[in-house]
Amino acid sequence: MSIRHGLLALLERGPRYGSRLRTEFESRTGSTWPLNVGQVYTTLSRLERDGMVVQDGADDAGHDLYAITDAGRTELHTWFGTPVDRTHPPRDELAIKLAMAVGAPGVDIREVIQSQRRHTLKAMQDYTRLKAQALADVPADRDEVAWLLVVEQLIFQAEAEARWLDHCESRLVRLAEAAATEPSAGSGPAATRGPARAPAERSRSQR
């Protein structure tokens, strides 16, 4: 998640101070990715260092205001126009967990999958309720529309995860069935013929 670009997007609407940026960020995303004030001010310091924002006086309450610069505006518009890179996906804890669970002693991977599926479906139901609440009234402002987009993304993500878990369980069942039908080592016609004789031994027997 690009906090710096999120803050730049909010600053493009006008100068703001740190606490207000945090509040507006969480309002826009429905507090899905909460920030603390320390993160906000650390990011603002880096943006200021990089010439993306400047301090712009203070408001009537004495809060230090930050404003976006031309360089920051260019950076923001470049971010909006550039697709999110999928060639280096972030680490996914669930995928790593299942990969490590395969063959791990004492771990029932199917139970791991079923436990995660229950959690994922519960989350999907919760997100769906949030969407229904958001749609109870027609979204009235940009923050409500933005939150609706976020919660719908969470629903689609949970649906995809549930389908993937179903696929993982089916895959494991098929692999287990295939392994059960394979002849065990040491069985079959080759095992009943005894060890093959070395070439020298065969040649002596043929004299």
- Report the strand count: 2
CA-CA gap between termini? 80 Å
* Radius of gyration using CA atoms only: 29 Å
Number of helices: 9
Indicate the percent of residues in helices: 55-70%
Can you characterise this structure?
The protein is mainly α and 207 residues long. It has nine helices and two strands, in the order H-H-H-E-E-H-H-H-H-H-H. It has helices spanning 3-11, 18-29, 37-49, 70-81, 93-101, 109-136, 142-181, 189-192, 199-205; strands at residues 53-58, 64-68. A two-stranded antiparallel ribbon has the order 1-2. Helix 2 (18-29) crosses helix 3. The longest helix has 40 residues, at 142-181. The radius of gyration is 29 Å and the shape is elongated.
Summed up, what is this model?
The protein is mostly helical. Helices cover 65% and strands 5% of the residues.
Defining traits:
single chain, 207 residues, two-stranded antiparallel sheet
List the helices and strands and how they pair.
Elements: H1 3-11, H2 18-29, H3 37-49, E1 53-58, E2 64-68, H4 70-81, H5 93-101, H6 109-136, H7 142-181, H8 189-192, H9 199-205
Antiparallel strand pairs: 1-2
Helix pairs in contact: 1-2, 2-3, 2-7, 6-7
